[in-house]
Amino acid sequence: MSLDQVQVLLEKDAIQNIKYEYFRRLDSKQFGNLIKLFTEDATTAYDNGRYSCNGREEIFNFLDESMSTHQCLSQHQAHHPEITFIDDIHSTGMWHFEDTVYRLDDKVKITGAGIYWDEYLKTDQGWLISHTGYERLWVCTEKLNLDNYLEIRSFWDAKELDRSNQRNKTAGELQLYPQR
């Protein structure tokens, strides 16, 4: 394997890690850290363009307003990355994703799959997202009858927060999730 091939693999790995961090921070509602993964002038076009944003501040506000409530529980997984390098500092990515979102306040469960279309820019801070968005392949919204549930417990419930804050954590874990 040539040095150029090794460098391409390292660059692809760095881009994949940005996307994986994006989903982790999205689902754990760490929007302040998530927004640092974007360029200042980044754009988004979520859900076939229904929710489009221009710039970090607008993206942050959209995510914070739509997902920060503890009544919104989400899980996003992306896989099958197809990374293409345009030049040394520009690349694109296509990702198959699946998500599940519980909106307890609206009493709905949303499940679906789609394709994310991303653009990345290599900066002094490494690769950043300059555009992200997705088109749905399918989506299903189910009405929830919360009376049928024995328990719905989340990361943000007071007892879970206490339990999390009391247990010993590894140094790496503390960097990923500072005390909540």
Percent range of helical residues: 25-40%
The total strand number stands at 6
Strand content range: 35-45%
Oligomer: single chain
Number of domains: 1
Helical element count? Answer: 5
Structural class: alpha+beta
CATH topology: Nuclear Transport Factor 2, Chain: A
Report the sheet with the most strands, covering strand number, pairing sense and barrel closure: 6 strands, mixed
Task: Give the helices and strands, then pairings.
Elements: H1 3-27, H2 31-34, E1 38-46, E2 51-54, H3 56-67, E3 72-85, E4 90-103, E5 108-123, E6 126-143, H4 158-166, H5 171-176
Parallel strand pairs: 1-6
Antiparallel strand pairs: 1-2, 3-4, 4-5, 5-6
Give a structural overview:
With 180 residues, the protein is an alpha+beta fold. It has one domain (3-149): Nuclear Transport Factor 2, Chain: A (Roll). It is 31% helix and 42% strand. It contains 5 helices and 6 strands. It has helices spanning 3-27, 31-34, 56-67, 158-166, 171-176; strands spanning 38-46, 51-54, 72-85, 90-103, 108-123, 126-143. Strands 2-1-6-5-4-3 form a 6-stranded mixed sheet, with helices on one face. The longest helix has 25 residues, at 3-27. The protein is globular, with a radius of gyration of 18 Å. The N and C termini lie far apart (45 Å).
